[in-house]
């Protein structure tokens, strides 16, 4: 083989190796944007159902995790659904849906729940800030919806908690 053919072959092999190396990253990014669009569709369905009520009150888009999901060690994303938190007089209402389509509705009042700001709980729940609600039926976890990426979740989740604490 000539030197030119050898160089072309080496470049092709290196490009193929680079593509194999980057393939998992690109597949993960596709999955991230797919999950983001799924959460948007969930919120759109919820707003079509409770939009009139939500628009008459303050509301915030959030990601949701049950106690079982939050405590689970093996997961790609720590949340299992999406929805909205509505600040209604005397209570906080969550209208949501899991990624598998199961509706989740919670009424969180000072009499039936206790809120705690957890901040970042890195393992196994990512670099996301969390709010925990302890209810008689178990714990429920919320983080702010920040789009496809989690950048900024600390500040916006803390703002949600501060608004809840002022209720």
Describe this structure in words.
- It is a single chain.
- It is built from four helices and seven strands, in the order H-E-H-E-E-E-E-H-E-E-H.
- The longest helix is centred in the first third of the chain and has 53 residues, at 3-55.
- The chain has helices at residues 3-55, 67-71, 122-125, 153-165; strands at 58-66, 81-88, 91-98, 103-108, 114-120, 129-135, 138-144.
- It has a seven-stranded antiparallel beta sheet with strand order 4-3-2-1-7-6-5.
- Strand 6 and strand 7 form a beta hairpin.
- By secondary structure, the protein is an alpha+beta fold.
- The protein has one domain (3-165): PH-domain like, CATH 2.30.29.
- Helix content is 45%, strand content 31%.
**Would you report the number of β strands?**
7
Mean pLDDT: 90
Could you give a short account of the major beta sheet? Answer: 7 strands, antiparallel
Strand order of the largest sheet: 4-3-2-1-7-6-5
Domain tally = 1
Class of secondary structure makeup: alpha+beta
Can you tell me the overall shape?
A: elongated
Oligomeric state of the chains in view: single chain
Note the beta-strand portion. 25-35%
**Helical region count?**
4
Please estimate the helix content: 40-55%
Cα separation of the termini? 77 Å
CATH hierarchy, class: Mainly Beta
Weakly predicted, low-confidence segments: none
Can you tell me the CATH topology?
A: PH-domain like
């Amino acid at each position: 083989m000539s030197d030119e053919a050898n160089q072309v072959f080496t470049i092709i092999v290196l490009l193929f190796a680079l593509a194999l190396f980057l393939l998992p990253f690109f597949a993960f990014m596709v999955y991230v944007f797919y999950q983001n669009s799924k959460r948007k569709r969930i919120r759109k369905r919820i707003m079509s159902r409770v939009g009139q009520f939500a628009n008459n009150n303050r509301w915030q888009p959030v990601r949701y995790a049950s106690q079982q999901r939050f405590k689970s060690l093996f997961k790609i994303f720590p949340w299992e659904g999406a929805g909205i938190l509505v600040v209604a007089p005397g209570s906080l209402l969550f209208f949501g849906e899991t990624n598998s389509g199961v509706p989740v509705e919670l009424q969180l009042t000072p009499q039936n729940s206790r809120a705690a700001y957890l901040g970042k709980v890195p393992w196994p729940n990512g670099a996301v800030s969390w709010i925990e609600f302890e209810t008689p039926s178990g714990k429920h976890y919320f983080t702010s919806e920040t789009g496809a990426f989690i950048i900024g979740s600390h500040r916006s989740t803390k703002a949600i908690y501060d608004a809840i604490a002022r209720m």
